[in-house]
Write a structure and sequence with these properties.
By secondary structure, this protein is an alpha/beta fold. It is built from 13 helices and 13 strands. The chain folds into two domains: 140 residues, Aspartate Aminotransferase, domain 1; 218 residues, Type I PLP-dependent aspartate aminotransferase-like (Major domain) (Aspartate Aminotransferase, domain 2). 41% of the residues lie in helices and 14% in strands.
């Protein structure tokens, strides 16, 4: 095996979810607070009107034109963008591969990537695969003070807004400041907006509205997340024409095209699906606040955040590393959460709780179990 591949460790969140799937197959009832998705009541629209003969075959590597147009129209109308479906967007098999293609497009071996903790766990390993090194800004660091981390080797800064797993939504002022700071240093900013629909009351700011010309900004997003279709693997990237053209070449060699039949379906029912799923996505904020209130009642701390279906529970007063706790909760209590070490060195004492799948009463059961473990462990009190 290559040295490069042996540097890559398994994705901790996926590892825990694989254990959940196995437990469920053997009949265990698992309180699943580890999945990186939300379950929606989805409109049962039929495939009967889809051209299945066309759907059986390859389509444009850039993405189905009809679907590209739908996405561009949405972004332009919602975020005051000036995107062109021919020049500024590429659709592929999920946003994950597009983050990697972005790195392959803008980075050379030895370049550095800067990301903010808590950081989505694949950023680090994708940077390694791209031959780059990654540095992290620790949790709770002020975005306006990023200058201290921008060495001459940094060529890409990644901002995940809304953030997985803290739920932080960065303001337009914060994003603009970061983009301008990086522009003056000839640094590209990748803004991962996979959870943009999970923010209510127009609090979300897209990179498209911050810099419509997409000079040094690349935006990735995911229909899989926003529409509750995680298994369909449909994502898109928006950038200036030269970046998109180069990423197209990579997509041709790595993916060819996202599944044609799924793109046809989404293009036809795009507006109908969003009319149903977006209100559900935004209503999760109310559920999130209820869970936060219950954590407060249990005297369990959590990271600041106001959106998404994630809550980053702060147990750093009790644990330096919650990995063993997460294993104990799953193996002995059938409660699945993700240890904070998946998201950075500064978040090892945290647990990620995802509330998109389970009802409140089962989430309360998990909170009670965690509290009971803390209370019974006398060395912490």
């Amino acid at each position: 095996m290559s040295e490069r591949s042996r540097q890559i460790s398994e994705a901790i969140s996926i590892k825990f979810n694989e254990l959940v799937y196995e437990k469920k197959r053997t009949g265990d009832d698992v309180i699943t607070l580890s999945l990186g998705e939300a379950f929606f009541d989805f409109p049962q629209v039929s495939f009967d009107e889809i051209d299945m003969e066309r759907g059986f075959h390859y389509t444009d590597s850039r993405g189905l034109p009809e679907l590209r147009q739908k996405i561009v129209e949405y972004y332009n109308s919602t975020y005051s963008g000036s995107l062109c479906q021919k020049d500024n967007i590429l659709i592929s098999a999920g946003s994950k591969i597009l983050v990697f293609m972005t790195m392959m497009t803008v980075l050379d071996p030895g370049d550095e990537v800067l990301a903010f903790e808590p950081a989505w766990l694949s950023y680090e390993h994708q940077a390694t695969l791209a031959g780059a090194k990654i540095k992290f800004v620790p949790i709770n660091f002020n975005l306006n003070d990023v200058d201290a981390f921008l060495s001459k080797k940094v060529k890409l800064v990644i901002l995940n807004s809304p953030n997985n797993p803290a739920g932080t939504v960065y303001s337009s002022k914060e994003i603009l400041s970061l983009v301008e700071t990086c522009r003056h240093r000839n640094i590209t900013v990748l803004i991962d907006e996979a959870y943009s629909d999970f923010v209510a009351n127009d609090r979300f700011t897209s990179g498209v509205s911050i810099q419509p010309e997409l000079d040094n900004v690349i935006v990735v997003n995911s229909l899989s997340k926003s529409m509750g279709l995680s298994g369909w693997r449909i994502g898109f990237v928006m950038a200036n024409k030269s970046i998109i053209d180069q990423m197209l070449t990579l997509n041709q060699h790595l993916i060819t095209c996202a599944p044609t039949v799924l793109q046809l379906y989404l293009a036809k029912y795009f507006d109908k699906i969003r009319a149903v799923t977006v209100p559900q996505a935004q209503s999760i904020e109310l559920k999130r606040q209820e869970v936060l209130d219950r954590l407060d009642q249990a005297n369990i701390k959590y990271a600041k955040g106001s959106s998404t279906f994630y809550i980053l529970i702060n147990l750093s007063d009790y644990f330096e590393d919650t990995y063993d706790l997460a294993e104990h909760l799953l193996n002995d209590h059938n409660i699945a959460l993700v240890p904070g070490s998946a998201y950075g060195e500064s978040t090892k004492g945290y647990l990620r709780m995802s509330i998109g799948v389970e009802p409140i009463d089962r989430i309360q059961c998990a909170i009670d179990t965690i509290k009971d473990i803390l209370v019974k462990n006398e060395r912490f009190f």
